[in-house]
Write a structure and sequence with these properties.
The chain has about 80 residues and is mainly α. The chain has one domain. Helices cover about 60% and strands about 0% of the residues. The radius of gyration is 24 Å and the shape is elongated.
Length: about 80
């Protein structure tokens, strides 16, 4: 575990306290860890698994199906 002394403004301090209370966390370090995890999941692009990349490549190599109009698609799908 890395220890750091950080300077935060009053607003950020209040946000950390809210997160700490909302999730029942022990301290502000846990709140910062939670924020970092959520940021990673929401903002940073996750690395694609090789299986997914290969599956996407196979799909892209497939010949597209021409359905024509919406009516033809409905007929094709029996809707």
């Amino acid at each position: 575990m890395v220890q750091a002394i950080i300077n935060i403004n009053e607003h950020t301090n209040r946000i950390l306290n809210i997160i700490k209370a909302k999730y029942g966390l022990k301290d502000k370090s846990s709140a910062i860890d939670l924020m970092a995890t959520q940021y990673e999941e929401e903002i940073l692009e996750p690395e694609l698994k090789p299986e997914y990349v290969e599956k996407a490549r196979k799909i892209m190599r497939q010949k597209p199906v021409d359905v024509g109009s919406v009516e033809n698609l409905r007929t094709r799908l029996d809707i």
